[in-house]
Description:
Strand order of the largest sheet of chain B: 3-2-4-5-7-6-12
Helix content of chain B: 25-40%
CATH superfamily of the largest domain in chain B: Thiamin diphosphate (ThDP)-binding fold, Pyr/PP domains
Oligomer: heterodimer
Strand order of the largest sheet of chain A: 1-2-3-7-6
Organism (chain A): Kribbella pratensis
InterPro entries (chain A): Alpha-ketoacid_DH_E1_comp, DH_E1, PdhA/BkdA, THDP-binding
Largest interface: A-B, 45 and 45 residues
Radius of gyration of chain A: 23 Å
CATH class of the largest domain in chain A: Alpha Beta
Number of domains of chain A: 2
Number of domains of chain B: 2
Protein name (chain A): Pyruvate dehydrogenase E1 component alpha subunit
Distance between the termini of chain B: 46 Å
Structural class of chain A: alpha/beta
CATH topology of the largest domain in chain B: Rossmann fold
Largest sheet of chain B: 7 strands, mixed
Keywords (chain A): Oxidoreductase, Pyruvate, Thiamine pyrophosphate
Shape of chain A: globular
Cofactor (chain A): thiamine diphosphate
Order of helices and strands of chain A: HHEHHHHEHEEEHEHEHHHH
Amino acid sequence: MSESVPGPAPEVFAPHKAPVSPPQASEEVEFVQLLTPEGERVEHPDYTFDLDDETIKGFYRDMVLVRRIDTEATALQRQGELGLWASLLGQEAAQIGSGRALNKKDMVFPTYREHGVAFCQGVNPLNLLGLFRGVDQGAWDPKDNNFHLYTIVIGAQTLHATGYAMGQQRDHAIGDAENGEATIAYFGDGASSQGDVNEAFIWASVFNAPVVFFCQNNQWAISEPIDRQTRIPLYQRAAGFGFPGVRVDGNDVLATYAVTQQALKRAREGSGPTLIEAYTYRMGAHTTSDDPTKYRLNEDLEHWKLKDPIERVHAYLSRHAAVDHDFFDEVEAEGNKIAAELRAGCLALPDPVLTDFFQNVYVEETPQLAEQRDQFIAYAASFEGEG
Amino acid sequence: MTKITLGKAINAGLRAAMEKDPKVVVMGEDIGKLGGVFRVTEGLQKDFGEDRVIDTPLAESGIIGTAVGLALRGYRPVCEIQFDGFVFPAYDQIINQVAKMHYRSMGKITMPIVIRIPYGGGIGAVEHHSESPETLFAHVPGLKVISCGDPVDAYWMIQQAITSDDPIVFFEPKRRYHEKAELDESVPPMPLHKAKVLREGTDATLLCYGPMVKTCLQAAEAAVEDGRNLEVIDLRTIAPFDLATIFASVKKTRRAVVVHEAPYSFGPGSEIAARVTEECFYHLEAPVLRITGYDTPYPPSRMEDDYLPDLDRVLDGVDKVMGY
């Protein structure tokens, strides 16, 4: 050996005594905040929200509607109409704030929980249910709304987003903060441990790809708390990859909007990727199959309820924007109407038939598969006429 | 007409595809200035630029995952995996994303991606550099798997694969990169998913692809001395197999030996044996035999000559099917 390597300090091997464990819910967290949980606007040296109260009313409406859609989907699952549902409860501000910061030409790569972003992009909520009802695996055309299909494999979509952004580069679609294009990749705190996510960071960095990595740190990857994924705040990881990272109060729709908009502008003008850690909380279960009472304290949930993303906007609008009750009642009524339509639409979704699902395995079908389909059709037909 | 090596033929095919379609991008490790560890992409970056011939970070999942994104954007990525044994970090992206995207989108998305993999043994390499993992891809719905056995096929098949809207895993027989053949571009190519009868015969059919094509042709020549007239078929396409050509041949010769470097069990030969048994049962004089690598990990290279099927083992298999 040419030189001796100093031994690591003993505590490196004692992760459970980690002195740098991430802040717990009860601690103060450093992040960008522009609207407090009490509904008061606050200043930040680097970020401002300079749109009017009408825009904030729009955000409120968006958040209430997606929560209502989410609630209805959970109910549909409980009644056996969906096989599963992944609730976004608690993450409405992170999704609406970032979703509303997107321009028409920006491209979105979601996980399976981005119902709020889908709503912003104009995806029909009914289309989101197909995957969970088991009638399809994503019914919308990603090109229609610049919203890719949901990705179930954790973190895989961050590479797709990065590749797509490299395509935007090659198409010379960047270089202008307003008219250029950017890509946004959604993922969670659990995904931050995936190799694909770390590879995506490297690729985006070395190719300076116009991609925003939007991590909703909702504190839980099913039952595993954030300290099983990281010993430093997630946004700080960006520094090691060579691009900026910022933590935003993910329950603050104004701050999320401002931070995301700045990152998107940066990407569109050709300055490369940004990691946004939206610090939030998964107020529901991981999915309807999960039971969070087995692994987390109810006090935590109660604590986070005080930081509810919708309540603070309600408080702000009531107190400072002279919005009257009619507005809130109208939004609630609109939500109920959408939910009723969603329910009716879900129940009316036609059951798929396997005959149709031999298609689209290939663009150019193989003779072997055509033969199997024909055999299945003949086999199914042999039961016709039987009681 | 010029004589061209198999490696140079793929290079020429890539070049032709890139000239025809500006959406074709080539990506992989060391493929730019170096031209790839086998020089298959030599000179492409100089002529097409760094945006189209991309030296990637050393991350195979990243290569395939970003290729998915480029394909979604309208590009036609050709990904090089440096060696067969290094494809597995990308396996998740290939199996869960590339293979399923067209299906799960109900046809709205296509994945025109080619994944080039130099494969097989016989070059004295260290471990992970001599493997034949084609079954692990051929088994997956949504993927097509092909392998070229000579320079002419290499030239055309890479271009046809790039033109295909289905994702294709393109296995290149690395020990045959330096084999030469005349390439006459005025002769139109065969369809991509067709097998090729290289040698007509009457006594038994040798079914092979990739690096085993040359081995089987040599075996058929040697068999003449024993008075045996063997038919040799270069399968060319593994997923899907060209069953019509296989069945026609076996119905004629009544005996079949499948030859591949990949391990014996659950290999391409197993699928062929099952299919031939179903379709040619009353024509068969003998069970379909498989002459293959053994069910061990690829051995240290000083033993590879014993591990790999060679002329003698192929003829031993022929003796067995003739003995029934």
